[in-house]
Amino acid sequence: MYVVYLNYFRPAEEADALLAPHIEWLDRYFDSGDFIAAGRKDPRTGGMVLVKDMDRAQLDAILAEDPFVAVAHYEVTKVNVTRAADAFEGLKGI
């Protein structure tokens, strides 16, 4: 799977203006089963998305569709989950 960090390079107010289309983008990929979890950073300097394993070029194409590309840089890390607490066993092999 991938851990994708969004790091704002523009003020949060500019991100707020793009929030509705960003949430629509998130919903589309949660509905397709590609996104596992997402949320804001605290303090609010960006966000994070957990993404199921896929071809990196496919992930890059999905990220390029996010309206937040105008306000955030993306840091992508591929993770191979080999251990998980009982409640999160489903993350293994994603």
Automatic annotation (TrEMBL):
Coiled coil: none annotated. SUPFAM superfamilies: Dimeric alpha+beta barrel. Gene3D superfamilies: Dimeric alpha+beta barrel. Residues 1-79 form the YCII-related domain. It comes from the Bacteria. Belongs to the YciI family. This is YCII-related domain-containing protein.
